[in-house]
Amino acid sequence: MILSGKEILERLTMVAPVSTPAGLERVKELINEGKVVISPFPDISKMLEVLSLELEIGKIKIPESPGFLKEICIDFSRPETLKEKFEISDKEQVFLHPNPRDFLRVETRQFLGIPADLVAQIGIGSKFATHGLEIIGEPAYLLPGFVGKVELNIKNSGNRPIVLSPGLPIFQLVFELLSSPLNI
């Protein structure tokens, strides 16, 4: 059974900070209580859909990809552009071109914890998917007991470049109730 937006909202909870051992322990306690943990907590008025929750881009990593690196300018004032792989800052944008060899490694901004009775499928939101953005190896599932940020490889199979930047809500998370909880 897929959870509705209302059911997702009833189960969402936030913890802060999650980067400490005590914060991670609290996440485990909450998912054992059946809560879906998310941090930072999203703007529900913008991110909660009828049957899903949107997640934003956090970090964008440009991998070692033969075609992609030709599109990146070498900037001597930014030493990271001299490397074969680097990360985009929070204020920058990157163009993902429709080249089959090009992809980006993207991390969600939100940290998640999935309880024992749910599985979550993460995909690209339809508004972005209709323009060619897709996850390589889709569908991607977050299994019961998952704790952390999600990292996915994305590509552009459309016919025009797509501009991506941290904070853009491209991901869609759909929760499904398991017939019985798993031991996590």
TrEMBL record:
Identify the domain of life: Bacteria
Q: Which InterPro entries match?
A: dCTP_deaminase, dUTPase-like_sf
Annotated GO molecular function terms are: dCTP deaminase activity
**Record organism:** Candidatus Nealsonbacteria bacterium CG_4_10_14_0_8_um_filter_35_10
Name-wise, this protein is dCTP deaminase
**Which biological process terms from the Gene Ontology are attached to this UniProt entry?**
dUTP biosynthetic process
Q: Which residues form the signal peptide?
A: none
Q: What is the lineage of its organism?
A: Bacteria, Candidatus Nealsoniibacteriota
